[in-house]
Amino acid sequence: TETHIHADFVSGSRELAAKTGARLYLSGMGGADWQYDFTQGDTVVLKDGDAWMVGNVRVEVLHTPGHTPEHLAFQITDTAGANRPMGIFTGDFLFVGDVGRPDLLKGFGGSKEDGARGQFANVQRFKSMADYLQIWPGHGAGSACGKALGAVPSTTLGYEKLFNPAFQIDSEEAFVEWLVSEQPEVPRYFPQMKRVNKRGPALLADLAKPQPLPADELASVLQTGALVIDTRSCEAFAQKFMPATLHIVRGNNAYAGWFVDYAAPTYLITETAQVDEVVGALRAVGVDDIPGYFTPDAIAGATTSLRSVSAPELAEKVGEVYLLDVRAEAEYQASHIPRSQHIHYGQLSDHLDTIPRQQEIVIYCATGVRSQIAASLLRKHGFERIAHLKGGIEAWQAGHFPLEQPDLLQIP
């Protein structure tokens, strides 16, 4: 089962059911536009108040619309020793210190304000429930499904009533304003994930495995404009790469969702031994059309390198270079290097005409991973005077160079 049609990654429930013969329990709430399209003959379509047993464990369905219209929570009772519930799997409704954002449905109907009102109603409902209930959320810190998720994996409803900001706001209008404001950027691929998970993800057995391609075909593939992702290490890429490739280091392949064209093929540059790992990470964000890959020895011909600058070197150039911060908006607002401009790395393609081509550009992020993605993207679009800050803003902070940041809150 799952709490809702996910937008962050391809769901594994259909794959798991196909491999094990398990029965799917899927939401039937939210209206016709929010129904799963891949239900099977034995799929159980869930409504608010439904329940089923797993051994002595009773699973009860609570419809909690807001993050999405069909969203469910699952209340758990161990009937072998109790007649009251012990906890709730809250999915993307209730997190530790936060509630799920309502603005991920662009292109699917419904407004973020409507979703926020749904979340307000959910919070009011949960205020009347027992404080002892354990809360098992769908995400922790780092998820894009909220703006201030706590790092601990679980909580109690009583604790959330005391410290979660959502439980402190009694006015619906004030709640809506709070919830829709200052949300992080919506990853560009989230609508695609929603479509995939509603339609039903392709089964892995039905997907063709990428084939090794001859080295001499790489240049011609790049000339077609196809996306070629170079997955080598940051160090190896910086030393030598082909300017039309996009660098996304192995282990961070979910970043590809910001750049991939889901209607066109994607190619890879990677070691043969790493193909399955890289492809698996790309499949997780719905990149299924991967015809083939090139090994690093295919990198030849018109290659270039990526220059880096150290924090002390950059400190002497602030004001002379075009300094570009490619982190998330919230990171930039928290603190940034003086005189830097902000464009999220995943949105650079939409703002190329605002970046000066004749001026030296220095790009930075937190540690250097996203800045190198951004540098490769700009190089792909013909920018040449590019460098990135080695070690990112963390190196800048370690060197005790100045930062611009809002005044710290004065807490009595």
Round the Cα radius of gyration to an integer and report it.
24 Å
The end-to-end distance, rounded to whole angstroms, is 46 Å
Shape: globular
Proportion of strand residues: 15-25%
Number of helices: 12
- Strand arrangement, largest sheet? 3-4-5-6-9-10
- Average residue-wise pLDDT: 93
Number of strands: 20
Question: Would you write up a description of this structure?
Answer:
The chain has 412 residues and is of the alpha/beta class. Helix content is 25%, strand content 17%. The protein has twelve helices and 20 strands. It has helices at 13-20, 112-127, 157-163, 172-180, 190-199, 218-223, 234-239, 275-283, 311-315, 329-334, 369-380, 392-398; strands at 25-27, 44-46, 51-54, 57-63, 72-78, 87-91, 94-95, 98-99, 134-137, 155-156, 211-212, 227-230, 246-247, 266-269, 292-294, 307-309, 322-325, 340-342, 361-364, 386-389. The strands form five sheets. A six-stranded mixed β-sheet has the order 3-4-5-6-9-10. The protein has a five-stranded parallel β-sheet with strand order 11-15-14-12-13. A hairpin with a 2-residue loop joins strand 3 and strand 4. Helix 2 crosses helix 4. It starts with 12 loop residues before the first helix and ends in a 14-residue tail after the last helix. The relative contact order is 0.09.
Explain briefly what this protein structure is.
With 412 residues, the chain is of the alpha/beta class. The protein is built from 12 helices and 20 strands.
